Amino acid sequence: MAADGRVAGLPTEFQPRRIRIAFTARQMELYGRAVRNAAHAGFLSDVLDAKAVQDAVPLAGDGVFGGHHYRFGGHANPHRTVQGYAWAMADRGGRLMQNTEVLGFDQAAAE
Fold this sequence. Notes:
alpha+beta, 3 strands, 3 helices, D-Amino Acid Oxidase, Chain A, domain 2, 33% helix
């Protein structure tokens, strides 16, 4: 995937950064583990209270406990991303076979 979130020039609806919403104290605790692990690698995030989440994501509703704003990574629409890879493969002579068991791969150098 390119830095702009495209696969073979096709959009994936990639959005950098994200807010992970917790609806319970337990969820907030679990998500906090990921934040702490990421912090060890130098990634930044912010802890958000319920009001900050609701201000940033009005559709989150009233049952919000809190959340985390991850200032790293991002999210792409998985359906658009897979479709982009499938089209790129077909453009390069590959063949997509759905509902087929994979038994192995053959690799050849591009001409």
